[in-house]
Specification:
Layout: H1 6-9, E1 30-34, H2 38-44, H3 49-70, E2 74-81, H4 89-112, E3 116-120, H5 128-141, E4 148-155, H6 157-170, H7 182-186, E5 199-202, E6 221-224, H8 234-245
Length: 254
């Protein structure tokens, strides 16, 4: 459901991009985003990688607000993968500090807009300050009924599937477990109770899914843009939504 008029959400569209062509009834319920290109954005400007991550915060902010305004029900953003610990220690520690500061700075505004904020991944491995910021955001916003923002942090798709199997095995004694099928398996994923992503967006032109929501994106439409993440704005999101609406989703059928 559209939460603001299109002319308010997209006040100054670039030439050739018409917000009125967006079918507001056909906005995807769940959009997932692989936010890529911060490092290349920084390198092209002679900056260190962490400056690229800081520049990407505005793109995160704009994407969240725009997705909420156009009526997306679930937005999942890939903030930090379980493989990202391999990056230089100063970059990782800077990112963890940035996550904590950003979450604490943004949560009140998100709460006012009715957004629920939940982190998914192995949060126990995060620095205490970072973990506390995400936990505090969830406690503050969990009663909201607007868009759900999922922040994938220290997340890996294969690990999520393994964790789901472990959760299933622990759910009940062997003779009392529910019969396992695709639907019931979903109840043990981090995204239990949520629809699978309709649309997966990846920035920076890379053509891979990078261990992100491997179970859930089985039939997601993919839109890959060459735009680096810090340059991604509401109009780039609009382009992705329009491309999605131009697809014929057959789900394996004819």
């Amino acid at each position: 459901m559209l939460r603001k008029p299109l002319e308010v959400i997209f006040p100054e569209p670039p030439l050739g991009l018409d917000p009125a062509s967006l079918d507001v009834a056909g906005v995807p319920r769940h959009v997932a985003v692989i936010m890529d290109g911060n490092g290349r954005w920084a390198k092209a400007r002679g900056k260190v990688r962490l400056q690229g991550h800081k520049a990407g915060i505005e793109a995160v902010r704009e994407t969240i607000r725009c997705a909420n305004d156009v009526g997306v029900d679930y937005l999942t953003i890939y903030s930090f993968s379980s493989e990202n610990w391999k990056r230089p220690a100063d970059e990782v520690s800077g990112l963890m500090d940035l996550f904590a500061k950003t979450m604490l700075a943004e949560v009140d505004a998100l709460h006012e807009e009715g957004v629920r904020v939940k982190a998914i991944g192995h949060l126990d491995a995060l620095p205490p300050k970072t973990r506390a910021a995400f936990e505090s955001a969830w406690e503050k916003t969990k009663g909201n009924d607007g868009m759900t923002l999922l922040v994938a942090v220290n997340y890996g798709g294969r690990t999520e599937i393994v964790d789901a199997v472990k959760a299933y095995l622990a759910s009940a004694p062997e003779g009392e477990r529910v019969a396992l099928d695709e639907d019931s398996f979903g109840d043990f994923l981090y995204t239990a109770g949520m629809p699978d992503p309709d649309l997966l967006i990846r920035t920076s032109g890379e053509m891979r899914v990078s261990n992100f929501l491997l179970w859930q994106i089985a039939y997601s439409e993919m839109v890959v843009t060459d735009v680096l993440w810090p340059d991604f704005d509401r109009y780039e999101l609009l382009r992705a939504l329009l491309e999605f609406q131009g697809r014929n989703r057959r789900f394996g059928g004819v």
